[in-house]
Design goal:
By secondary structure, this protein is mostly beta strands. It has one helix spanning about 130-135; strands at about 5-10, 15-20, 25-30, 35-45, 50-55, 60-65, 95-100, 110-115, 115-120, 130, 150-160, 160-170, 175, 185, 205-210, 220-225, 230, 240, 250-255, 265-270, 275, 285, 295, 315, 325, 335, 345, 355-360. The strands form seven sheets. Strands 19, 20, 21, 22 and 23 form a five-stranded antiparallel beta sheet that branches. It has a four-stranded antiparallel beta sheet with strand order 3-2-1-28, with no helix packed on it. The protein has a four-stranded antiparallel beta sheet with strand order 7-8-9-10. A hairpin with a 7-residue loop joins strand 26 and strand 27. GO terms for molecular function: hydrolase activity.
Length: about 375
Amino acid sequence: MTEVLLLAGTRKGLFIGRHRDGGPWEFDGPHFNAQAVYAVAVDRRGPVPRLLAGGDSAHWGPSVFTSDDLGATWQEPPTPAVKFPQDTGASLERVWQLHPAGPEAPDVVYAGTEPAALFRSTDRGASFELVRPLWEHPSRKDWEPGGGGEGLHTVITDPADPDAVTVAVSAAGVFRTTDGGAGWTPSNHGVSAVFLPDPNPEFGQCVHKIAQDAGDTRRLYLQNHWGVYRSDDGGREWTDIGSGLPSDFGFAVAAHPHRPDTAYVFPLNADSDRVPAGHRCRVFRTRDAGATWEPLTAGLPAGDHYGTVLRDALCTDDADPAGIYFGNRNGELYASRDDGDSWQLLLSHLPDVLCVRAAVIGH
């Protein structure tokens, strides 16, 4: 029997859904009541799945929690799992991303933070160490925060190469390492920064999210602050693929787990009017690597709609057909069980949905 686990981090806690073949969705929560949960992950590499959550308590501050029983109980380390060394002069404001690496790097989990930094764990998220070469990158002094802060919000690893990691920072752009983090290279050529005096800088782009293609790990999709792009060489060069969308502004992008050349975005009107493009709730899908786009609306609200989908609030599971999921700032959580062809509303009246993750956990 296939079972899908769905994690939805919100402004006030984490909600966990489970779906078994032929049955309804069942939800529990909120976990971490009144905490903003900006990052969640499902790590299936161990003998049992491990859930990770980045909570942000207004009283106790940010922390990383783990669960090895699908959320029934949670563990928090006695000392902060993610902490800036004293000599950096920085303090953790938020965990933006939790990313378990693939089988090429057993037990490795990455955390992206605000201030923008990358941390690496070798014990499945119990403790993390700052990746100093990126923190000390010569360009860092010129990084500027985006509207939501200076966050490292995306981590992509290469299933074939444990030394290859790609990250994205708002608003500094894409950086890549091919030597396990010892050296980092800005990788933004072709990505425009229309809000800067030089619209084509080496770094400084406000990248909102990156996703990796299912067929070729070198193919990446990027949603920028204005602009949707594709790279076919791991991020060295980017090509604009936003033609055919009602707007090329947005936050989220996700790739199909099995089908090459297939990706999803949720366009928004503009940076000054961050609501769905045309006030319509529409996910757009490409099945030809961005040459064309099609709106996916079956089951979604047909009238005026103002639910903004944030950068980590659109995801896929790895079922076949794939489940596609998104949540919005209206507190709605939607799911498709057929690659996005049709949708159903799972929950409404939640707090702002900040992030979603889904995974098949049983067969």
